[in-house]
Amino acid sequence: MSDDKRDQRSRRRKLFGAGLRTLGRGARRVLPGYDRAQYWTQSGLDWFDTLGNLKGAAMKLGQVAAQYQDLLPPELTEQLARLQRDAQPRPFEQMRTVLDAAWGPDQWAQVDSIDETAMAAASIGQVHRARLADGRAAVVKIRYPEVAGSVDADVANLGRLLRWSRLLPIDASRLDEVLAEVRDRLAEETDYRIERDNLVAMRALDLPGFVLPAPVDALSGESVLVMEEVVAERLDGLREADQAARDRVGEALVANLARQVFTHGLLHADPHPGNYGLTADGRVAVYDFGCVKRVAPAEAEGMRRVLAASLAHDWAGVHAGLADLGIVNPAAFADESDVFADIYQRHHHAAIDAVKAEPFYDFTEGSVITRLRAEVRADLRHWRRFRPAPELVFVMRTLSGMYWLLRGIEARVPLYDMLEAVADGREDEI
Asked: Which SS3 state, helix, strand or coil, does residue 65 take?
């Protein structure tokens, strides 16, 4: 048996074991007095241990789940969020084999030195500082050896777990479509040639207040990506800065998110604190372009239509916009207008009214998420009236992750005014 097959079999056993343990705990949830919070905490710890040891696509799936803090039980996401913070790098000797396979003598001659201590580690690879022969400071991103071959198996195993556990109220065919979207994005992330192209495309947007590293093409390929270093402090250090600095960064993040989706159709879809920094001149440094989502014009306009109709309290318009996105049956509103209007109005009240109440929305104010969670739980009985839109999975992931990022830096943003600008097609003015 080849090493790749042995590794895939080992990964499958570990994921299968974690899934069985989760299902076993779930079977006890119906017993009187069972502590549901303890169930999710234990499941989260189990998945953290399992996914953290596997790295690759399996670990990435856990990180993605952690960014849905507004939908999944907090006891679960608190544990999975540690996958972002606690990723452990591998010894440089293991990563050197990847470099030797990717670089020939001419390329090694362009590198003066590499720091063998990783500056960062994640699910797909790890990053080392380097000095190039021409004097430039650089970072070298090296893919873990087994990652590329694990994506299909890991996503397939995730699908089995979701079907068994019924964690998500999605029918089988739509779940398959969602998983296909996840698989495609993860497969892209394992090919650093695609990440290099994403970086070049994102740099061309020239987003105001952002700075993106320049790729070093001569040293980059499928398993290694080299970029000029952008020196920046971690974004979560803003908690120690004054409010004006936090607000300025928060406004730049929201404005450029709107521009990416609605103006350019090109979205950096991996928003967690480790992928952003703050330069000495106050610009936001952006890293990691493995997950960049192309947003089709029709999708962007469908989302704009939903937002504009919601701000106008036009529930039939909200429904029509969601129908454009494939989320609801367009004819259903005529038959059940009271049901749909009630759902749309309650969600609007939970999210938009709080944002509209103050000129600057304070992201440390947590009542919006509390209310939205309550509405989501209340509307589970209506889930068959709605269908997931697979092409929007990573857009929604970005919105969720950006909310928690802004909350982490304690930003205040003129959010309602910005939403009105997006609804009117004026996102380039914010």
From this structure: helix
- Phi, psi dihedrals of residue 349, rounded to the nearest 5°: -60, -40
Write the pLDDT tens digit of every residue in 206-234.
999 999 999 999 999 999 999 999 999 98
Q: In angstroms, rounded to a whole number, what is the distance separating the alpha carbons of residues 368 and 241?
A: 25
pTM: 0.81
Kindly report, residue by residue over 101-135, the tens digit of the pLDDT. Answer: 999 999 999 999 999 999 988 778 899 999 999 99
Query: How far is residue 320's CA from residue 301's CA, in Å, rounded to a whole number?
Result: 12
Give every CB contact of residue 112 below 8 A, 6+ residues apart in sequence: 130, 131, 132, 133, 135
Task: Answer whether 409's CB lies under 8 Å from 250's CB.
Answer: yes
- Residue 44's closest CA among 61, 15, 22? 22
Instruction: Show the tokens assigned to 100.
Output: 């030797």
Cβ atoms within 10 Å, residue 46: 17
Biggest distance spanned by C-alpha atoms of the chain: 70
Please check whether residue 320 is in contact with residue 285, taking contact to mean a CB–CB distance below 8 angstroms.
no
What single letter denotes the amino acid at residue 41? T
Alpha carbon of 104 to those of 98, 100, 111, 138, 192: distances in Å? Answer: 12, 7, 11, 19, 18
The CA distance from 311 to 39, in Å, is: 39
For 78-87, letters b (16+ CB in 10 Å) and e give: bbbbbbbeeb
